[in-house]
Amino acid sequence: xxxxxxxxxxxxxxxxxxxxxxxxxxxxxxxxxxxxxxxxxxxxxxxxxxxxxxxxxxxxxxxxxxxxxxxxxxxxxxxxxxxxxxxxxxxxxxxxxxxxxxxxxxxxxxxxxxxxxxxxxxxxxxxxxxxxxxxxxxxxxxxxxxxxxxxxxxxxxxxxxxxxxxxxxxxxxxxxxxxxxxxxxxxxxxxxxxxxxxxxxxxxxxxxxxxxxxxxxxxxxxxxxxxxxxxxxxxxxxxxxxxxxxxxxxxxxxxxxxxxxxxxxxxxxxxxxxxxxxxxxxxxxxxxxxxxxxxxxxxxxxxxxxxxxxxxxxxxxxxxxxxxxxxxxxxxxxxxxxxxx
Length: 341
Prior knowledge:
Number of helices: 10
Number of domains: 2
Largest sheet: 7 strands, mixed
Structural class: alpha/beta
């Protein structure tokens, strides 16, 4: 049996390859993909060729082991259906909808224990947001918002919207977001945030301070993917405040103003990444517990409303070109392989 797999072959070039699927070994299952979500952050850095060569794609996810170098497969949000199992795997798994951290492909073979059963209450469209929701949960845990704080979120892509949705559940004094794209600002306002601003506006800083009762923010999350946004975060965060940096910039560079008020403000810059649990939580939290929190959050927030585009895998080049050239028209892009039954 063959599968269709998506490969990034060079900067801004993707291709589909027909590949034979390996035979099922002990503990293996065969999954037919229903849909997979495209990451507008990390995955676009791969598409654009703006990733550090030699860096391991992911040290935790088995399907993403190996360095960033062309040609490579990538993607980490597949929802599918188990269609075959090896003899050593419970046959009741056949027909079950599952989530897998796996690159974009029509079919794949994986160890049964690496798959995450999808709650029956969730649609495949909602389930494909699991990695981004887990990231949002991790960001909010690292941010540790406090009752009555003033919070600013820079970037309202999928991760930013999910993070803002979680933060909106806290009793904050004010929650303000920012994004350059009107479509994403509107989605943010629909969540119920205090306001969503354009960081490219000439009065952005003044407007952000005005919305926070003429004070800087206790907590700022930088989720825009733009390293220059760190200057906005530093300028708008109060004395002894926290800046949580959830963006991965790849090889993007920008001068950061660490002069001025930064040194005297005693700001805390916090690097947040979902592959690990924060050390201070690791005695009580593990990945399984965080996934349970993420599933429940998906049920509450219903992020499938943010899917703006669906493409068959055969139109992958068009999908990536859209994200690269017209991100203002998108929030979440997915590849649709088959319909759920």
